[in-house]
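Aim 2, interim progress: modelling of the L-MYO-inositol-1-phosphate-bound target.
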Amino acid sequence: MSLDRQKALNVAVDAAKAAGGLMKANLFAEKKTTSTTQYDIKLELDVECQRTIETILTREYPESFILGEEGDTGDEGASHRWVIDPIDGTVNFTYGIPHACVSIALQEKGSEAGTEAYRDGYQTTVAVIYDPFCEELWTATLGEPAALNGIPIQVSNRDRLEEALVSVGFSKNEQTLDQMLPVVNALAYEVRKIRTMGAAALAMVYVASGRFDGYVENNIRLWDIAAGGLIVESAGGVFWRRATEDPHTFQILASNRALHEKLASRCFNPDKMWGQE
Ligand code: LIP
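Predicted structure of the complex, ligand included:
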């Protein structure tokens, strides 16, 4: 039996706002870390936010499988799953930078026209991204226009690289830095500006809203991009992704339609993974 996607969207919005409220209340609080590496930080608040989201989602959907940055729960064989990044932009948040968000996606088994299923056959059918600091709520349901605070959004129609604002993400290890820095060098001389903001989900919805013209990253995890990918597609953009060998990990290019091919040709060889000669 297919889910009532409007109801699922409403429940996901409630969950995102609950987690967003915790983020807003704790931006300047002392941060308690659960792990710290050279290029990444994880917080106790990440876990608390995911538990808050899970409680709201499983109250309505007890049969759900939850695949989250802070762990998985439920039956992995379920016909649908919630894909959650409770705080996307955790390093920004840790440093008191109010550029972070909550990302929640509903994914259903099977494929419907218009979206490419992920490697394991799921596709995103409902998406919510909430920035509690700017009070900006992006939403999308498969087959419906994407919206920002309830108002329909569209990707930009800029078609000249020299006018383009392109965001690049650096993931959490030296291999990805080695792969992404040449991309930055290739683009920096041709576009108007490069932006590295530290929150993939926000970069994706900035593309959907016409603020950015493209967003590229390698070795990015499913919970960072699942909701943003549907929102970009539902705003008329292109969300290209390719699974890597690591579970739930992708290389992606999200962009408007006019610049997609130009950006793709400069970011990677579509026939090869980054870093392969
Ligand atoms: C972050 C992503 C960012 C990526 C970082 C990190 P987190 O997610 O949004 O684009 O470059 O390495 O993965 O860890 O803050 O949820």
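Residues 161-275 form a domain with the D-Maltodextrin-Binding Protein; domain 2 fold (CATH 3.40.190.80). Helices lie at 5-26, 44-60, 90-94, 174-188, 200-208, 222-233, 260-267.
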